[in-house]
Design brief:
With about 375 residues, this protein is mainly alpha-helical. It contains 17 helices and 2 strands. The protein has a two-stranded antiparallel ribbon with strand order 1-2.
Length: about 375
């Protein structure tokens, strides 16, 4: 037993030490630490894992603090990618949308979502949990934390590697070299590879309309890939085992109706219920009418209007968030309608400043402090963070 403990401790120290991290060994260890029922397919182990990522994305790291690290890192990569694409501060990408999806997941991981429920809703959720009709609060938090971190373990190293290959002064911009490191086993793998191919093409595209359509196409294919990969795990959240199926669809509709997608920027906020049609008011001029044949075909496939932009995008709100097709429809419209929304580009945790790039260990903070920091935009706790 002592020998086993020694090797576990040795492996963890190797994964977080100031030195190269073996991506395959590190990823294998993380997947073994995830409850089997919540595991998704492993990502490519061909991209480097930074020492900070190895520490803060570890399954052994506090899930609330890990969520904050993921949010901050997505935001940082999103800004770097937009800068590389020549649309910084104007047009977002998958990483910006993922920032706020992860932020929303964090409200379940840190318990805030449950605090917002009424007593009746809490009692109903508790009763259905203990009755086995749906996952109880603890299991919901484990599920969301596991899925959130598995997405990050794939997308963060991938994003960093893309920026290194295509966006720096000395970048080689070698698509064959980059794409050869991506896995190509499943339909979602192929969609992810196509997404980054369109990002690469958008970098050198001089026509602004075509550039923004390619960025939107890339971002949409990336979210399709992500949603397809985690779909089996998300099914567990909505596997409402009501007797003989009685009320199953009603429960799914209720669960979907409780969900929100929130974006914030310097006090401004956009909040969208998952059950509402996507508002198209903020759709950028370049996406009012779609010319790119691939993006047009994608929208046609999922019933999204691709000619004159309407308001709102009809029939894009969900009734059953467990449905992959409904999620694709909602997210397709969301990406088109809000890719230029200033709130999308906001910093999710402004008081953490550069904590994620500086390697600051947040372990000294209590959960109550973390919750205060999540919603505080006045800088009241900066001294506590960085003293």
């Amino acid at each position: 037993m002592r020998i086993l403990s020694f090797f576990i401790a040795l492996f963890i120290s190797l994964a977080t030490a100031e030195g190269p991290v073996d991506p395959k060994r590190w990823i294998d260890f993380q997947w073994k630490s995830i409850p089997e029922q919540y595991r998704v397919a492993k990502p490519s182990a061909n991209f480097p894992i930074t020492t900070n990522d190895a520490q803060f994305l570890s399954q052994r790291y506090d899930p609330i603090k890990k969520n904050i690290y993921i949010n901050k890192t997505y935001h940082q990569i999103g800004n770097q990618l937009s800068d590389c694409l020549g649309v910084e501060g104007e047009i977002g990408n998958w990483y910006h949308f993922a920032t706020w999806a992860s932020f929303s997941a964090g409200d379940i991981i840190n318990g805030k979502k449950y605090e917002e429920l009424s007593r009746i809703e809490n009692a109903g959720s508790w009763l259905m949990g203990v009755s086995g009709l749906l996952l109880d609060k603890s299991e919901q938090q484990k599920l969301f934390s596991s899925v959130n971190s598995q997405i990050a373990i794939e997308m963060i190293p991938l994003g960093r590697a893309f920026i290194k290959e295509f966006c720096l002064a000395d970048s080689k911009k070698d698509w064959q070299n980059f794409s050869s490191k991506m896995v190509n086993r499943s339909p979602e793998d192929k969609l992810l590879k196509a997404a980054f191919k369109f990002y690469a093409e958008a970098i050198s595209e001089n026509d602004r309309d075509k550039k923004i359509e390619k960025i939107t196409l890339a971002s949409t294919l990336q979210v399709y890939s992500e949603q397809m990969r985690v779909d089996p795990a998300l099914d567990l959240m909505f596997d409402l085992a009501s007797p003989l199926g009685v009320g199953r669809q009603m429960l799914k509709r209720h669960s979907t109706n409780m969900g929100n997608y929130i974006m914030r920027n310097n006090g401004s906020e956009t909040a969208i219920k998952l059950s509402d049609d996507i508002n198209a008011i903020l759709t950028p001029p370049e996406l009012q009418v779609i010319d790119d044949p691939k993006l047009k075909a994608l929208y046609r496939l999922y019933g999204i209007i691709f000619t004159d932009c309407p308001d709102p995008f009809a029939d894009t709100g969900g009734t059953d968030w467990s449905s992959l097709r409904q999620r694709k429809i909602f997210l397709s419209a969301l990406f088109r309608g809000h890719i230029a929304n200033p709130d999308l580009l906001g910093d999710p945790h402004p008081n953490f400043a550069t904590a994620n790039t500086g390697g600051r260990d947040l372990s000294s903070l209590q959960v109550s402090q973390i919750r205060q920091l999540i919603d505080d935009y006045q800088g009241l706790y900066e001294q506590e963070l960085f003293e």
